[in-house]
Amino acid sequence: MLLCVTASHKTASFEMLEQLSRTPDDVAPNLLRLASCVQGAVVLSTCNRFEAYVEVDEPVTAAGAVGVEAVLEAIEQSTGIPTEQLDGAYAVHSGRRVAEHLFAVASGLESVVPGEGEIAGQVRRALKVARKEGTTSPELERLFQRASQAQRKVKNVTAIGRAGRSLVRLSLELADSRIADWEAERVLLVGTGAYAAVTLATLRERGATNISVYSPSGRAELFAKKHEIVAVTEDDYARVATQSSLLITCTNAAEEPVLGPEHLQAQTGQVTAGCPMGATASSSQLVIDLGMPRNVDPAVANLEGIALLDLDTIRLHAPLEELQATDAARSVVREAADTFNVFGDRQSVTPAVVAFRSHILSLMEAEIDRARARGDEDGRVEQAMRHLAGVLTHTPTVRAHELAADGRGAEFTAALETLYGITIATDAAASESA
C-alpha cells in the first residue's frame, strides 16, 4: 500500500518547513530501520513542502496508522522535532489518492505559484537520492517515473506552465513597485545553486547589469567567471552588502541565516575596496529571501531603510490561478493517476486470479486423469472438461479485474478464501504488485 505524509505551505508554517528541510536525507533510511513493514521510502523536500512517500506491507486496515507513525518517528529522529509538534502540520494521503497528489505536485499544481517549473526537477532528484540510499522500491519507482511522465504531459498539452510563474520571477515582479530603473540597481546575489542561476537570468531579463555574487560555500569565483559577474570574498561581503540596493539570497549551503543586521550596518561613507557597487552605503535597500531554511535574519526587517521580502510575503501575493489552464492540467493529472492505479490494482489482484485459476485447473486435471483411467481414448471427455474449465474461470477472472479497477480487489480475494479456502499470502501479493 502507498502512503504519503505531507507538510506543505498549505498545512505548515514556514518555520516548521525550515526545520523539516534541514536533514531530509536521513528520514528515508531511518524509516526503513524503524519499521519492518516499510518496503520503501522516498522523501521530497523543497522550500515549500516536505513529503514522505512510503510503500507499506501491511493489511489495508492497519497500513495508514502504522505508516504514519513510522514517518513521524523517523522525522523526530532526523530533525529533532517532537512528534506532538507536528500535529496539525501535515496531511495524509493513502492508496489511490497518492498518485494523484504526487502527479499534481510534480506538475506544479500544489506550489505556492501554480505551474512553477522547479518542482519537476526536485521530484526527479528525490527519486535519485532514494536510489542512492537504497530506500526506494519497485512500486515507488513506478510512481515517481509516472509522475515525471504526467508532468511532461501537463506541460505539453496545457497552458499551466505559461500561466504560472516561478518564485524567482514573482519575487522580482513584486520588487518592480520599488525599482524605477533595473539597470541602475546595485545587486548582490547570495548563493550559486540552481535558484541563483535562474535568479541571475531573470535579473538580466529585467535589465540589471551591476550584479555581484557571494557564496557561503566558497563557490562565488567559479560562478562569477561562468556568468561574467563580480565575485565577492568573505572579507568584502558585509561591505558589499551595505553598498547594495537589492540583495537576493537563495542558498542552501548553510543552516543558519547568511545575512543579518551585522552585515548591513557598516558605517555610512565606508568605501568597499575594488567594489563596482558604489562608494557609499545604500540609503534604501530591498532584501529578497528565497532561501529555505531562511537565509535572512528576520531582524533585518527592523533596520531603517530596509525592506524584507521573504517567502511568507511572496506566498501572500501569489496570483490567482488561471482557472481554464488549471482545470485542464488537473484533468490530465487525474487521468494519469487513474491509469496508474488501474494498472497497479490489476497487478495486485493477479496473485488471487492465478490462485483461483490454478485451483480450478488442478481439479480439472484430476478429473481428466480419472477419465483417462476409465478409458477416454478419443479424448472427448478431456476436451469437454477443458472447455468447461475455461467457461468457469472466465467470468470470475473478468470480474476480478473489474473489481480491481474500482479499488475493490480485496473483495475478490476475500471471496476466494470464503468459497474455496484459498488464502493469498501477503508477501506474495506484494511481490506480484511490485
Can you walk me through this structure?
The protein has 434 residues and is of the alpha/beta class. It folds into three domains: 2-163, Glutamyl-tRNA reductase, N-terminal domain (Beta Polymerase, domain 2, 2-Layer Sandwich), CATH 3.30.460; 167-315, NAD(P)-binding Rossmann-like Domain (Rossmann fold); 337-433. The protein is built from 16 helices and ten strands. The strands form two sheets. It has a six-stranded parallel β-sheet, with helices on both faces. Strands 2-3-1-4 form a four-stranded antiparallel β-sheet, sandwiched between helices. Helix 10 links the parallel strand 6 (210-214) and strand 7 (230-232). Helix 4 packs antiparallel against helix 13 (323-373) and helix 13 (323-373) runs antiparallel to helix 14. The longest helix is centred in the last third of the chain and has 51 residues, at 323-373. 42% of the residues are buried. Mean pLDDT is 83; it is low at 267-280 and 426-434.
What would you report as the Rg, rounded to the nearest angstrom?
A: 29 Å
Query: Percent helix among the residues?
Result: 40-55%
Strand tally: 10
Mean pLDDT across residues: 83
**SSE-based structural type:** alpha/beta
* Spatial shape: elongated
Using the coordinates shown, work out and report the CATH topology of the largest domain.
Beta Polymerase, domain 2
List the helices and strands and how they pair.
Blueprint: E1 2-8, H1 14-20, H2 27-34, E2 38-45, E3 49-56, H3 60-79, E4 91-94, H4 97-106, H5 118-133, H6 138-157, H7 160-163, H8 167-175, E5 186-190, H9 194-205, E6 210-214, H10 220-227, E7 230-232, H11 237-243, E8 246-249, E9 285-289, E10 306-309, H12 311-316, H13 323-373, H14 380-405, H15 409-420, H16 426-433
Parallel strand pairs: 5-6, 5-8, 6-7, 8-9, 9-10
Antiparallel strand pairs: 1-3, 1-4, 2-3
